[in-house]
Design a protein that fits this description.
Number of helices: 18
Helix content: 25-40%
Largest sheet: 8 strands, mixed
Shape: globular
Radius of gyration: 26 Å
CATH class of the largest domain: Alpha Beta
CATH architecture of the largest domain: 3-Layer(bba) Sandwich
Strand content: 15-25%
Structural class: alpha+beta
Distance between the termini: 46 Å
């Protein structure tokens, strides 16, 4: 899946065109030469008007001055949650795009053109409750399509090209069903879907799943690699199904990284997201030019105590003492006098937060934040169909590795999204695709746009550091807060959830819905019925039949070797 771009929104890039929001900001930018500001009154239809804290009421706690660095989805969520508090809140964003929602890329020709946000926000409904609440309050609509993906690769001179959705395997070549590998793959898919959910069904199963595997002093749960080895899953299932799916839904870079992750967390995500359901679906923000107007209408861009500073790059953040109290000195590019704040929310990547703190970061902040790494993503909007599986043109997501393309590749694997899966993306001229990190560049004549951003890597090192993140949140003598998609699994939901957690826990924000502390709200699997037990029994018998046949084959081989003359045995060993 396309992941959150909190870090990239602060790093910025060259705008391709002038948005209506930018023009609107420029007309009212008369109060300060360094920022773009707007005066606005909260919309009476905004659900935030129902919040218990009103600006004209006497606050119960002292008013604080808060700076939010980064206007990506996390920074925008934190600002929105704080906009009805009595605190003075300022958001700094290097670009002129809020949450990657206000500067969409136009493709096609009117009236059949579409508008695509640069972070390409797509999510699963079962694991994105905070993101859906946020979009619902902003009145930003989203649309859905069935979740399916295809895998294209070449191994040992053989082409592998198959599509997957729930328990279905699709291929355009009949000969694929005549190979033993295809049936191994199909069998293991069924076995994984029916038996891996046992990890979530009972508290006893969860407790038995915990093992003391210590890495960097942090105990973790049983890993995916351990589970796959214990259950004897085939290599074709791991390499051609599980790893590509993990690289699509999470930002996992390699099989090694996947094997080091917690199996319970992974299976819990697959189940809660609906991927293991009968009809899995994925949502994206509706590609409409009206999204910008809806964000502007329901976000207080400027008031007496709130302000958004667009095209304002923060250069450093320093912790200083004033009358024995910690203050945060924030310096911005082109502004000679730094401003002091009581709290700073870093809604950027951990790498960017460390850069802003520079030598002022403590040893603990350095140790924890440096564990969260990012990778560069090149996104291409195009109509080149070479990146789409030839036998599975209906799949929403297409995964391909470098073996499927000629030599001279740029990346090890690429992920392409077929935008015409959504009715709103049906351009009459041609199909549209977004390819992340293409193995080869698309045909220049079919390129619509190209942009770059960074997204967090998901590995055991990052997940272990996440368990210690609370040790540097709002430390008494520093008042620094960190949020973003990197605090979870690299998804937009994680960015929104972490922002809501910080502002409700430390900064008196009140939200009209419950904020969940868990990165994934696991849903218990349904109880097994008669048909489930029947299928599980059949799979169990087939599995043991395979084991028995393997043992018979090994013993037969050993018996034949023992009966052969010694000279034949030595010759066979030479071969």
């Amino acid at each position: 899946m396309a992941q959150s771009t909190d870090a990239s929104s602060h790093r910025g890039g060259t705008p391709r065109y002038t948005s209506p929001l930018e023009d609107y900001l420029d007309r009212f930018n008369t109060k300060s030469p360094r920022v773009s500001q707007i005066e606005s009154v909260p919309d009476p239809d905004s659900p935030m008007t129902d919040d218990p804290i009103e600006l004209d009421k006497v606050p119960e706690t002292p008013r604080k001055r808060i700076a939010i660095i980064g206007g990506g989805i996390s920074g925008l969520a934190a600002y929105w949650a704080l906009q009805k508090t009595h605190h003075v809140v300022e958001l700094f964003e290097m670009t002129n795009d809020l949450g990657t929602l206000t500067r969409p890329i136009a493709a096609g020709t009117q009236p059949n053109d579409v508008h695509i946000n640069k972070s390409f926000i797509n999510f699963f409904p079962g694991t994105s409750s905070h993101l859906q609440e946020f979009f619902g309050r902003l009145k930003i609509p989203y649309i859905s399509t069935p979740f399916s993906f295809s895998v294209a690769k070449r191994e040992n001179g053989k082409q592998f090209d198959m599509g997957f959705s729930f328990l279905k395997v699709a291929t355009s070549r009949v000969r694929d069903w005549l190979t033993l590998d295809t049936w191994k793959l199909y069998f293991d898919i069924w076995r994984f879907h029916y038996f891996s959910l046992d990890l979530l069904r009972s508290r006893e199963a969860v407790q038995n799943d915990i093992q003391i595997v210590v890495e960097s002093g942090c105990p973790t749960r049983r890993t995916i690699g351990q589970y796959l080895d214990e259950k004897r899953y085939s290599r074709i299932f791991i390499k051609n199904y599980l790893v590509p799916m993990a690289q699509i839904v999470w930002n996992v870079q390699s099989e090694k990284d996947l094997r080091d992750l917690s199996v319970k967390q992974f299976v819990g995500f697959l189940w809660s997201s609906g991927i293991m359901a009968l009809s899995p679906e994925v949502y994206i923000v509706e590609p409409s030019a009206r999204t910008e107007a809806k964000v502007r209408k329901r976000i207080v861009l400027r008031s007496k105590t709130k302000a958004i500073h667009l095209r304002s790059k923060v250069t450093t953040v320093e912790v200083v003492l004033r009358n024995g109290c910690p203050k945060l000195r924030v310096s911005t590019l082109g502004e000679p006098v730094p401003v002091l704040y009581d709290y700073v929310i870093f809604a950027v990547s951990a790498e960017e937060a460390l850069r802003l703190l520079s030598s002022g970061a403590t040893q603990k902040e350095q140790a924890i934040l440096s564990a969260f790494e990012t990778t560069k993503i090149e996104a291409w909007l195009h109509s080149d169909s070479r990146f789409i599986s030839t036998g599975n043109t209906s799949a929403y997501i297409n995964w391909a590795d470098s073996s499927a393309f000629p030599p001279g590749n740029f990346n090890a694997f690429s992920v392409s999204y077929r935008l015409n899966s959504f009715d709103a993306y049906n351009c009459r001229e041609s199909a549209l695709y977004i390819t992340l990190n293409p193995i080869v560049h698309p045909n220049p004549a079919k390129i619509v746009a190209r942009w770059e951003y960074r997204r967090p890597l998901l590995n055991a090192k990052a997940l272990n550091a996440r368990e210690k993140l609370h040790e540097i949140q709002n430390v008494e003598d520093r008042h620094l807060l960190f949020c973003g998609s990197w605090t979870g699994y690299g998804l937009h939901e994680d960015g929104v959830r972490s922002a809501f957690q910080l502002v409700t826990r430390y900064l008196d924000a009140k939200l009209p819905f419950t904020v969940n502390d868990s990165a994934i709200d696991y849903k218990p699997p349904r109880q097994l019925n008669f048909w489930d037990y029947s299928i599980r029994s059949i799979l169990w018998m087939i599995d043991w039949l395979i084991v028995a046949c393997s043992l018979i084959a090994i013993r037969t081989h050993d018996a034949v070797i023992r009966r052969l003359p010694i000279r034949y045995v030595e010759q066979s060993r030479e071969y």
